[in-house]
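pinned: reference chain
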Amino acid sequence: KDPGGVVGDLLEKNVNLAIVKRVQAQMESDPKMRPYVTRTVDLYIPLEDRIRRAEEAKASIYLTIHVNSFDLPEVVGMETWVDSTRKDADPSWVLASMVLESISAPTGGRNRGVRSQELYLQRTKMPAIAVEVGYITNPNERALLADPVYQDKIALGILNGLHKFIAYLEEEQAPVAPASSSAAKSTSKKP
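pinned: its structure tokens
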């Protein structure tokens, strides 16, 4: 019931779902990942239900993928969003930065930065971000967003960003090694 941005015959909901399916396929072939997708067909699921489903699946990261639109067709780029109620130390900020860098660099998409506003993502405690992969209202980006090869680049970038974030979490949770108690001794003697 919600097509999202529409330009010509290209609907945001279809681009979103195509990219999600590509991310899911890449995650399923990765032994470190276990995807849970809240929407696999053209069906509207209320935002609160998406969060509830992710929590019931015991997800550790929540990521929602979208295509942007704007009144001015010259606006381009990718951005990630974090709920503004999240504190600076919340891992969502790190996740947003890592995913954005991982999709903008290999695709050549303009990195518009990590942004925040009050979002439904505040309804979960797990790291949660929204990813806007480009502007359907920009003719050049629209053509790219409809291209399966470009969609694969986005999906791979998202997967790489998730890997970086998981490595970051593992490093943060690793026990700190105790400092060495033996000091280096000088062997030089005064004349």
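why pinned: DSSP finds five helices and six strands in the chain. The radius of gyration is 21 Å.
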